[in-house]
Design a protein that fits this description.
Layout lengths: L3 E2 L17 E7 L6 H9 L5 E5 L4 H11 L4 E5 L6 H14 L4 E4 L11 H10 L4 E8 L5 H17 L15 E4 H8 L8 H12 L3 E8 L14 H20 L7
Parallel strand pairs: 2-3, 2-5, 3-4, 6-8
Antiparallel strand pairs: 1-8, 5-7, 6-7
Helix pairs in contact: 1-2, 3-6, 5-8, 6-7
């Protein structure tokens, strides 16, 4: 599977061309005690620094995170209360920016992403440092049918919201991606704090002028007995994402996409 470069535009982070490439991994987690250590340590094999952001997990998760924090190169941040995936990623991005990293590779904590593709995502980011690099999921038979349908609807509405831009977002819901940190920090506070974060920040980075690069990657839905835990709430989060798409469409329709 190759790397698909969608387009090269004048990204707001174009000064990254002159800065050393310094990536870090950001892993948001909420109650993933059976998978978080493996995910973080496998990512650590490819990237010197890993930031794990605990979004108020329970006792079992805290034990796993305590063990994880003892590993060199792994930083564990704790949120006092559960604020949502987006809130956790924002904390990780702020920490990474303050630490001087240039790029953040976001990966989910439930083990569904193929961490063998980390080098391919980073190569794409290094070659186009001002770009948003998105994992483009290649699903196997483990993917639930309703999640496939929801993704198709998400792709449609994101393409509507970015129709006047040159950046195509192949899958706005995939949490396996690389951000140019300066650009991500500039737009992230306008984005939602929960499952609406991933599609919204992708759209806002395109609106900001970031190129988009797609890297095909295998995705496996991990069985519950192996620690696969989905925190996606079928009704609540689908409603939240639907309202997001309506808001993004109206912002673009009213010509306010760059200001709100």
């Amino acid at each position: 599977m190759g790397v698909e470069l969608e387009w090269r535009g004048r990204a707001a982070g174009r000064d990254l061309q002159r800065r050393p490439f310094r990536p870090v991994v950001v892993v948001p987690t909420y109650d993933n005690p059976l998978t978080i250590e493996r995910v973080a340590l496998e990512a650590r094999e490819h990237v010197p620094g890993v930031i794990v952001v605990d979004d108020g997990g329970g006792p079992a998760a805290q034990e796993a995170l305590q063990r994880l924090a003892a590993h060199e190169g792994v930083t564990v941040l704790h949120r006092a209360t559960n604020g949502g995936k987006g809130a956790a990623v924002k904390d990780g991005l702020r920490w990474a920016a303050e630490a001087g990293y240039t790029h953040a590779l976001q990966v989910d904590a439930d083990g569904q992403h193929d961490l063998g593709d980390v080098p391919r995502l980073l190569v794409a980011a290094r070659e186009a440092p001002g770009a948003l690099v998105l994992g483009q999921p290649v699903f196997d038979e483990s993917a639930p049918g309703h999640r496939r349908v929801a993704r198709k609807l998400s792709i449609f509405w994101v393409n509507v919201a970015t129709a006047l831009d040159r950046g195509r977002i192949a899958d706005p819901m995939c949490g396996y991606r690389v951000y140019p940190i300066a650009d991500a920090v500039a737009v992230m506070d306008r984005c939602g704090d929960r499952m609406d974060f991933d599609p919204e920040i992708a759209v806002r980075l395109v609106w900001r002028g970031c190129p988009v690069v797609h890297v095909p990657t295998k995705v496996r839905y991990v069985p519950e007995e192996e620690g696969g835990v989905s925190h996606f709430l079928a009704f609540t989060d689908n409603a939240l994402v639907s309202l997001l798409f309506a808001r993004l469409f109206m912002l673009r329709f009213l010509g306010l996409s760059k200001s709100l």
